[in-house]
Amino acid sequence: MPESEITSRYARALAWLDQHLLRQLYTEQVRRLILRSFPFWVASLLTGLMAVGYEKVFSWAEQVSFTWLQQLPPLAFVLTPLAFVGSWALVHFLAPASRGSGIPQVMAGIDLSSPAHYRRTGYLLGLRVAAVKIVSSVVLLLGGGVIGREGPTIQVAAAIFRAINKLQPAGWPRLSRQIALVTGGAAGLAAAFNTPLGGIVFVVEELTQIHLSRFRMAVFTAVIIAGLTAQQFLGSYLYLGYPRVTSPGGWFQVLAMMAAALCGLGGALFAKVLLGLSRYRKRFTTLPQRAGWVVCCGLVLACLAYAIGPAAVGTGKPLINTLLFQNNGHTPAYLFPARFVGMALSYSSGGAGGVFATSLSAGALLGDGLAQLFNIAVADRNLIILVSMVGFLTGVVRSPFTAAILVLEMTDRHSAIFQLLLGALLAQAVAALIDPHSLYEHLKHEFAREALDAPAPSRPTRTVPEVAADVEDAA
Fold first, then answer.
1. Which one of 237, 268, 298 terminates a domain?
2. Of 73, 101, 192, 414, which has the fewest beta carbons less than 10 angstroms from its beta carbon?
3. Helix, strand, or coil here: 282?
4. Residue 223 lies in a domain
5. pLDDT tens, 28-84?
6. Both 359 and 212 in a single domain?
7. Care to name a GO molecular-function term for this sequence (predicted)?
8. Over the stretch 146-173, which tens digit does the pLDDT of each residue have?
C-alpha cells in the first residue's frame, strides 16, 4: 500500500476520533495533548505486538538450531556457514544499517534528529531496515549464531515510532522527532525483557542527553502500553524466573564484588575485541573477500558447535536458567571462552543480532566459574552469578544502572539490589580503565557517518507540523 494512502487513512481515522470523541469530552488543551500523544500510543501498541511476534519466532529458531545440532552435529559445517552468508547477504544487499545490535543505530538516529539531518535517519531506522533486521537475525540464529534479539527489538521499535510519527497529518500537533526515537527505544527494551523500569533507565543513561522533563510522559506511557501489550500474549512473566538468592556476610560479599569487577573487565575486553574485528573487516573491500570472511566466521563457529553442542550456540538464556535453577556445580570451564568466541564471530560476520542477552549469559558463566574456583557451595552461587551478569553487561554497554535494574526486574530479587548496584559501579570503574567509551558509543559515530555519506533522500515540500517539529528538535 502506498505511503500516501496509509497517511490518508490514518488522517481520516484521527479526524473521526477528534470530531466524535475528543471535541465532545475534553477541553482544547487536553484535546491537543491527546492528539499529540496518540501516535505514540499507536506505536507503543505496535511495538508490543512486534516484540511478542519476534520473541516467538526467535525462540522457534533457537529451538530448531538446537534440534538439528543434537540430531546431526556434522550439519554444522554446512548450515552454520550457510546461515552466516544468508544473514550477511540480506544486510549487505538490502539494508546495510540493519547489521549488528541496533542500539548504536538508534543512538546515531537521535543525534541526527536535527532539522538539517533528520531525513538521514531513514537510512538507519526505516521500515525496510527493520524488516531486514528481523529476518537476518532469525536466519543467523537458525544456523547457530550466538546472538540476542533485544538490541534488534530496540531498533525495530524506534523504526515503528519514526514511521508512525511521520503519519501525523498536516495541521495536527506533533511531538519532537528526537523524542519519538527516544521513546521507541525505551518501549522496545521494556517489551523485549518485560522490564519497564529498565526501559526508562536505559533512555536516561544511554540513549539521550535530553533533560527528562522533555520526554518523561511520552516515555512512561509508551513503556506501559508496550509492556502491557506484550504481557497480554506472553503473560506476566519474569525473563529469568525467581532464583533463590542467599547472601552470606563477610568475605563472600567481597568475593561477589571481585566477581563483578572481573566480569566488567571481561565485558570491556569483549567490546574491544568486537571493535578490533570491525576494523579488521574493513580491509576486505571486494565482495568475494567479504563473503570469504563471513564463511570463515561460520566455519569456526561450526567447529565449536560440533565439538560442544547446543550449549555453544544461541542466546544463552537456557544456560542462565540452568545455572540459576539446576546448577550441578560442574559447568565446564571451556564454555565461557567458547561462547566468547562465538559471540565475537556472530557479531563480526556482518549479519543482524544483539549482544544484550549473550553478554548476560557470558557473565553468568564467568561468575559460576569464579564460584567454582573459590569452592563456593552451589546453594550460595546465585548472587555471584547475578552480580557477574550485571558486571559483564556493564563492561560492554557502560550503562551500570540499566544493567542492575534489568537483572533486578528479570529475577525479582530485591534483596540483592545493593549488591547489584555496587557491582555495576565497580564494573563500570574497571571497564573505564580499558576504554572510557562504550561499544555503542564507538559504533554510533560509525553509523552516523555512514548515514551522512549515504545518498540523500528526496526532500518533499514541508508541512506546518514538520516545521514545528524542526523548531522543537532544534531547541
1. 237
2. 414
3. coil
4. yes
5. 777 777 777 778 888 999 999 999 999 999 999 999 999 999 999 999 999 999 999
6. no
7. chloride channel activity
8. 999 999 999 999 999 999 888 877 666 6
